[in-house]
Design a protein that fits this description.
By secondary structure, the chain is mainly beta. The chain has one helix and 21 strands. The protein folds into two domains: 3-183, Galactose-binding domain-like (Jelly Rolls); 189-279, Immunoglobulin-like (Sandwich), CATH 2.60.40. It starts with a strand and ends with a strand.
């Protein structure tokens, strides 16, 4: 899953594009619950500003929402039925503006995080597609992430849920505005170094891909010069540490191959990359 954070300086998608999935992604309707609904009935999200001492102006338009967490392990959430469902085999990009209020009433001044879910039915949180960092800034910032769904019979609902930054529940708040959704091209930008030095000096200790890619069926193998497999993983985060069966591999030339599927538009694409590397001790 790819993510970046940027200072609020960006161009909004055309309303015709944003409106393909959300009826009110900017929370500008007079009634918050005209298009959105809550699933935790113990507590209700607020239409902001000017509720519970929250006074930050909206980054665009007039309104936004706040969600809170509580010490009793209850968190606020809000969901909406999509105009059209998310489909398997496609990659989606989501942009959302987030902030925190230091002035929130009572004890709810602590920063929290945001979880984004999708589901088949109302209040059905089937897949967690993103978990933000703890949002502790009071200025609005844009966060972007990408996801592909495994729900084959249609993901018709999107949910936003406040979350704790620590294992112990506490009172806190998060501010949310301008949710934008589009289909992504699913670009992969993987680079591989040509050498590494597993000598415990803290530099270039492992070998693996550098870059970002949302891929499935990832397969990464490294062979010695005689064609013997010395490393194999199907996890993007796993890199070779220069050991074979627990013993240091010798300084030498090795060869690697990586295969994976990525999504571009509505088409899955198979990719394969090959290269060589030098292990130096």
């Amino acid at each position: 899953m790819r993510q970046f954070v940027a200072i609020l300086c960006w161009t909004l998608f055309a309303s015709s594009v944003a409106g393909q999935w959300l009826a009110d992604g900017s929370f500008e309707q007079d009634s918050l619950f005209e298009y959105w609904h809550k699933c935790n009935f113990d507590s209700s999200p607020d239409h902001q500003p000017f509720v519970a001492n929250v006074n930050q102006p909206a980054p665009d338009g007039k309104r936004y929402i706040s969600l809170v967490t509580r010490q009793n392990n209850r968190v606020e959430d809000i969901g909406t039925r999509l105009i059209q469902p998310f489909q398997p085999g496609k990659l989606y990009s989501v942009l959302v503006l987030l902030a925190h209020s230091d002035d929130y009433a009572s004890t709810f001044k602590n920063p929290v995080l945001l979880r984004v879910w999708i589901g088949r039915d109302s209040c059905d949180k089937t897949e967690l597609v993103w978990r933000s960092p703890v949002i502790d800034h009071t200025d609005w910032k844009a966060y972007q992430f990408e996801f592909a769904t495994n729900i084959t019979d249609g993901a018709h609902y999107l949910y936003l849920e406040a979350g704790y930054g620590d294992p112990t529940p506490y009172d806190g708040n998060i501010l949310i505005d301008q949710i934008q959704i589009s289909e992504s091209e699913g670009l992969c930008d993987l680079q591989f170094p040509n050498a590494f030095t597993p000598d415990n000096d803290g530099l270039n200790e492992t070998f693996g891909p550098i870059g970002e890619c949302l891929a499935v069926d990832y397969d990464f193998k490294i062979f010695n010069r005689w064609g013997q497999l010395v490393f194999h993983t199907d996890r993007f985060s796993d890199h070779w540490d220069g050991n074979v069966k627990g013993r240091p591999a010798p300084s030498d030339l090795y060869f690697w191959v990586v295969t994976y599927w990525r999504i571009k538009g509505d088409r899955p694409l198979s990719e394969i990359k090959r290269g060589s590397l030098t292990l130096l001790r």
